[in-house]
Amino acid sequence: MPTLATTVDGLRMPNPFVIGSGPPGTNLSVINRAFREGWGAVIAKTVSLDSSKVVNVSPRYAKLHSTDGKEVIGWENIELISDRPFSIWLDEFKRCKDAHPSGVLIASIMEEYRKDSWVEIVERCQDAGVDAFELNFSCPHGLPERKMGAAMGQDPDVLEEVSGWVMGAAKRPVWAKMTPNITHIEDPSRAALRAGCNGLSAINTIRSVMGVNLDTLRPEPSVEGWTTPGGYSSRAVKPIALRMVMEISTLIRKEFPGRSLSGLGGIESGEDAAQFILLGADTVQVCTGVMKFGYECVRPMCDELLAFMAKHGFETLADFKGKSLDYFTTHADLVRRQAERKAAQKAAPKKVVASDAEWSGDEFVKQSDALSRQ
Q1: Which of 96, 139, 197, 287 is catalytic?
Q2: Alpha-carbon distance 104 to 11, whole Å?
């Protein structure tokens, strides 16, 4: 029978499904619930030393619905990191580990560009018992105005320096969370790994504007009639996340073998998770999906992933991790491969197909697609 159990950077997890940093990990109560529901690990909402500087507004969410209006496919948020006092978080970290000693609790941390602040938050969090760290170099709204979040993640030199500060103080595994709001995600990824980070997480939300209300002519979410670009998530971002996970996995394979990758971006099913693992992810994170479907969504996702593994005869996650990476190449190589196949088929008997006049509807689409592949 296949198993979902995995060990990543020394962290033993019953399955690869991780609560991503955000509203689903906003306090001890919901983190405890996540562990009770069976999540492999929980990344708490990002904390900082001085929460008094974090001021949220309302409303702070906007949604993109499917054409029939029944499904949320895109989700924008302008919510900041945790606005709860750091002292409360330290107490809750301790209480969480007391209640779930085998549960993998990961602290997401963010600070300004000061070495003493980063060292302090690392030391105090690990003294409280957290199992690992995720460095938030990727929040696309609010904090970049203070040179935090994506402002650091978009500058490989600064990211490498800050990661070095953290690695000098950390006694637990460290993942750096990458921003997608950059031209080449390999550049900050390489910087974090060069600094010694054990692994990476990708991607955080995509900087976006959800839309404009055509009655009021105001962009949304509207706060006193005004707004600011926010972070875009949910199903619509999955293709972009998969592309960036593929790029990071290729980098790790070539330059940093043995480093880990936690993939996220639009994961809502076991099949979604399988795709991220096939492209090199060790674990998969879910955040918006939890907000849409509840903490119990981990159970069907585990069942679906196990069904995928059984179908293909995979016993462990390692059996198919990165298995699809070998099938990416350049466009020029695609042209060469197709030309070679067509040349090899020239001598083969041609298929007899109906005339254009006999084609209609779905049949026409199928026949046209078949011809294009010849």
Answers
A1: 139
A2: 7
**Distance of alpha carbon 332 from alpha carbon 151, whole angstroms:** 35
The secondary structure of 255-272 as a DSSP string is H-TT-EEEEESS--SHHH
Residues 6+ apart with CB under 8 A from 170: 122, 126, 133
Length of the chain: 374
Domains located in the chain, CATH noted: 6-324 (3.20.20.70), 331-372 (no CATH)
Exposure b/e, 68-104, CB count within 10 A at least 16 = b = eeeebebbbbbbbbbeeebeebbebbeebbeebeebb
The residue type found at 147 is K
Report which residue type is found at 162. Answer: V
Q: Is the peptide bond before 88 cis (omega within 30 degrees of 0)?
A: no
Q: Is 125 a catalytic residue?
A: no
- Amino acid of residue 341: R
pTM of the full structure: 0.92
The CA distances from residue 232 to 141, 204, 213, 268, in Å, are: 11, 9, 18, 15
Pairing relation of β-strands 230-233 and 206-208? antiparallel
Query: What whole-number distance in Å separates Cα of residue 27 and Cα of residue 34?
Result: 11
* Number of C-beta neighbours around residue 53 at 10 A: 14
Backbone torsions φ then ψ of 131, nearest 5 degrees:
-90, -20
Which pLDDT tens digit goes with each residue over 22-74? Answer: 999 999 999 999 999 999 999 999 999 999 999 999 999 999 999 999 999 99
The first and second tokens of residue 224, run together, are 């006193």
Band of pLDDT at residue 359, cut at 50, 70 and 90: very low
Distance CA(338)–CA(323), nearest Å, equals 22
- The residue ranges of DSSP E strands in 224-366, in sequence order, are 230-233, 260-264, 283-286
Average pLDDT, whole number, for the chain?
Answer: 94
**Which tens digit of pLDDT belongs to each residue from 305-331?**
999 999 999 999 999 999 999 999 999
